[in-house]
Structure formats: structure tokens, C-alpha cells
Amino acid sequence: MDKPWGGRFSEETDSFVEEFTESVSFDRELALQDIALSRAHARSLKKAGVMSKEELEKVLKSLDEIEREIKEGKFNWRRDLEDVHMNIERRLTELAGPAGAKIHTARSRNDQIATDERLYLREKILSLLEELGGLRRTLVKRAEESLGLITPSYTHLQRAQPIRLAHYFLAFREMFLKDTDRLVDFLRRLDELPLGSGAVAGVDFAIDRFTVARELGFSRISRNSLQATSDRDFILEALFISAQIGLHLSRLAEDLILWSTEEFGFVSLPDSLCTGSSIMPQKKNPDLLELVRGKTGRLIGNLVSLMVVLKGLPTAYNRDLQEDKEPLFDSLRTLDGSLKALRKILDGLEFNEERLKASAGGFTLMTDLANYLVRKGLPFRKAHEIAGKVTAYLIEKGKKPEDLSLQELRTFSDLFDKEALELMSPERSADMKISFGGTAREEVIRRLDVAKREEGIS
Ligand code: ARG
Questions:
Q1: Are residues 448 and 395 in the same domain?
Q2: CATH code, 404
Q3: Atom of ligand 1 minimally distant from the CA of 83
Q4: Does residue 233 share a domain with residue 298?
Q5: Can you tell me which atom of ligand 1 is nearest the CA of 109?
Q6: How many CA atoms are closer than 13 Å to the CA of 247, on its beta-carbon side?
Q7: How many domains does the chain divide into?
Q8: What is the separation of C-alpha 367 from the centre of its chain, rounded to a whole number of angstroms?
Q9: Residue 76: pLDDT band by 50, 70, 90 thresholds?
Q10: H or E segment at 163?
């Protein structure tokens, strides 16, 4: 029996069991973190008097060798050794002899995996933050370029009120800024070392957890060994934030899919980022955007799947927890791709100014007509009713608000005078929205300036 835990067993492990329980095929992604952890742990074993100076040196040298083998793709990963931890430990013992066999003193795979995952996530979150930053800056750039363009906004997917296209892009920049904030906040909670918690109860030897933490770049250590080895709240949080970012990306993608249809025609996507149909020659499909939308389903699924795994687990480590890794790796990889995809699309997006202009006016101006009457002293509810009647009249006559004459208007209220006709412009409508965070040109310019300053764009 060649297993690190083989002592109490008298039969070989069934090979199906090996196949079913192994995790090394995917948790080898944590190999470098596991090695960094072992370096810090070996040093602390030396300080605790478990390893001699010579043994520590041997172990550190062997860990360097193992790292090299892994990076060069020469490491012999063995399924029968189950996971990344026992693969590395076994190789360490091959290289360093009895010194290597001491590495698992005062540690368990349970505190090891919780630590590896935190180390791994920390790096991944930092690169996610970079990607998100790039996307936010692209949105700011597109906002600046589209300051002069007006588009209808939609509520219930019905034309609502005219807004500046820049306002739209800044809205998404704001969403991704909140996601950024979530990630930064998450890093603070992630910053806690589980190692030294052992399998469940803590460890027997006088290891200095604070020094290990410092060496691995953690500013705090976990305060309860049971919590530290069994809780996966931090993986869930990573999955939630990924799903949340995915939701924002998906809605942006959906808008752009709609806007690039012949029916809307507000934007066009570059050929290089679209795909064709194998049967319909005229097609130019927004597959990239559709997949961003579609992959968001996976991001949500990964979150739900781990929540279900955790629900009802007896407290402390259970092997079920091994199921945390594949969703995590998948979500981080998927999200990275989706962020890159949307950035490319945004960069290549072209606006159809004519179409935007032609769509922005019309009935989207009816709130302005009501507000005009309010300024003349009418209570809003009354003004709303009159503007509603004007709307019904126009629909019946097959006319647009821009076609209204003063004479017609005055049949609804004698408060209307010729300034009311000047209201019938989408630009003007947008520029009336002067509230903080509204879509008036001056206000959008102010928000754009703030955004540029925050993003370090000059
Ligand atoms: N591969 C295991 C996991 O990912 C590592 C911890 C195993 N611990 C144990 N007691 N079997 O969860």
C-alpha cells in the first residue's frame, strides 16, 4: 500500500475509487500556492524544533526543484496520490528523504487547501481588478465620444425618455465600479491565514502562525480551527461576485444585441467580432455577445451549485468540500473571457447617429409636455392627464408630437403657448434633466470629468 495514509489499510484501493475521488486532475492548478505554503510551513517547523537547519535546507531546495519540474511540465502527476497536496509531499520525500517526510507535521490537508485557495484567489482577484479597470476605462472613453448623441431610454422595453448615449455608458461604468468595490472589500476578508488549524482541532506543535502569516502575505490569522477548516464562505463570495459581474455584463450584452438588430439599428459591430451563418448568406451574428450572456448562466450555476453542496454539511471538513474547486476555476476563467469579449466589442462599436436621432424624439417627449404645464402652475397629476389626452389624440390622427400646432395644443389647455412647441426636441428634453446624476449635458459632462479623474484619464 503506497498511499500516504496507507498504514491502517490491508487492501489495495479499488481503482474506481481512485478515479472517482481524485482531484489532482484539477487541483494541480494550486500547485504553486501549495509549494509557497510548504516553504513557510517548513521554516516554522524548524523554529518549533521539528526540523533541523540541514533538514530545512534540504526541504527548501527540493521544493525549488519541484517548482521547476511543474513549471517545465516535467512533474509526474499521479492519480493514485489523489490530490495536489499528496503529490507534492510524495515528491518532496523522494527528493529530500526523511526531512521531506516531516513536512506534514502540524498540518493537515484541511488547513492546507483552505490556505492554498486563499492564496490563489488573492492573485486572481488582482488580475480580475485589472480587467475590470480596463473595461471601465473603455466605457468612459465611449461615453466621452458619444456625449453629443441622444438615444431613447427604454423602460419595459418601451421608449421612455431621451437620454445622452454617454449617460448610458457611464451607467455601466458605475455598475462595474460597484463590482470593483465588492472585490476590494472581499480582498480584506480573504486576508486571513487558516494554516495552523490542522484537520479540525488545531495543532500540537509550537508553530508560530503569525510569522507564517507574514511570510505568506496575510495580515491576520484565523481565530477558530473548526471554522477555518470547514467554512467555504470565501469561495461562495468569489462565486457571487463573479455572478454579479456576469449579470452586469449580460445585460450590457443584451442591450447591444438588441441595438445591433435591423429593427433598432443603433449600433453596428465590427465584422471581425461577428460570425456568419452556414446557410443564410446575409447573416452577421453577434455570437460574442450572446455567449457573454449565455456564460452568465454558468456563473450563476456555479454559485448555486456550491451553495447546495454546503447546505446541510455536518460541521468540519467533509470530502464534499472538494467540489468547491471546479466551479471556482470555471467561474474565474469564464469571467475573464467575458470581460475581454465585452471590452473588444465596446472598442469596436460604431454608432448610427441618424437612427439614434430619428428614434429619440416622438412620444418620449410627452413627459416634457406635462412638466411644461406644471411650470405654468398645474398640479402634476392634472398635467399628466392632459399630456395623456394629447398622446391619444396624436395616435388617433396618426401624427407625431413634432407635428403639433399651437392651435391644436390649445384645445387641450389654454396654458400652452408657443414655447411649448420648442419643447419638442429630444436634446432639449435631455438637457432639462438637471438633477445630480441626470442626463442633462452639463451634468453628464460633470460626471464624465469625475469618472476620468477617478480612472486616471486626462
Ligand atoms: N482534495 C481535498 C479537497 O479538495 C483536500 C483535503 C482533503 N482532506 C481530507 N481529509 N481528505 O477538499
A1: yes
A2: 1.10.40.30
A3: 1
A4: yes
A5: 6
A6: 11
A7: 3
A8: 37
A9: very high
A10: strand 158-164
Indicate which residues carry an active-site annotation: 156, 277
SS3 267: strand
Last residue of a domain, which of 63, 82, 105?
105
Residues 6+ apart with CB under 8 A from 3: 9, 13, 80, 81, 82
- The vertex-84 CA angle with 226 and 322, nearest 5°, equals 45
Picking from 105, 132, 151, the residue at the C-terminal end of a domain is 105
The range of the structural domain enclosing residue 370 comes to 361-455
Q: What distances in angstroms separate CA 33 from CA 67, 233, 290, 416, one per listed residue?
A: 10, 20, 35, 72
- 209 alpha carbon to ligand 1 midpoint, in Å? 21
Residues with CB under 6 A from ligand 1: 23, 27, 83, 109-110, 113, 317, 319, 321-322
Q: 354 and 435 share a domain?
A: no
For 167, half-sphere exposure in the C-beta direction (CA atoms, 13 angstrom radius) is 23
In-domain check, residue 1: no
DSSP 433: -
C-alpha–C-alpha distance, residues 68 and 185, integer Å: 34
* Total number of residues shown for the chain: 458
Is the dihedral angle over the CA atoms 162, 163, 164, 165 positive or is it negative?
Answer: negative
165: number of Cβ within 10 Å: 24
Q: Give the angle subtended at the CA of 149 by the CAs of 144 and 152, to the nearest 5°.
A: 125
Residue type present at position 383: A
User: Whose CA is closest to 264, among 200, 351, 199?
Assistant: 351
Higher pLDDT: 291 or 276? It is: 291
- One-letter identity of residue 181: D
**What confidence category does residue 424 fall into, taking pLDDT thresholds of 50, 70 and 90?**
confident
Which is the closest atom of ligand 1 to the Cα of 199?
10
Closest CA to 254 of 296, 286, 293, 298: 293
C-alpha cell recorded at residue 99: 526531512
Q: Say whether 350 sits in a helix, a strand or coil.
A: strand
Q: Which amino acid belongs to residue 32?
A: L
Least Cα distance to 308 among 323, 329, 295, 328 occurs for 323
Is 230 among the domain residues?
yes
* CA angle in degrees (0–180, nearest 5) for 97-103-104: 125
Is there a single domain that holds both residue 169 and residue 268? yes
Helices (H) and strands (E) in the chain, counts: 19, 6
User: Which residues, in sequence order, are bridge partners of residue 40?
Assistant: none
Whole-angstrom CA distances from 176 to 19, 122, 170, 303 are: 41, 19, 10, 19
Read off the pLDDT of residues 328-366 as tens digits, 9 standing for 90 and up. Answer: 999 999 999 999 999 999 999 999 999 998 999 889 999
DSSP code of residue 320 = G
List pLDDT tens digits, range 374-407.
999 999 999 999 999 999 999 999 999 989 999 9
Q: How far is the CA of 35 from the centre of ligand 1 (A)?
A: 16
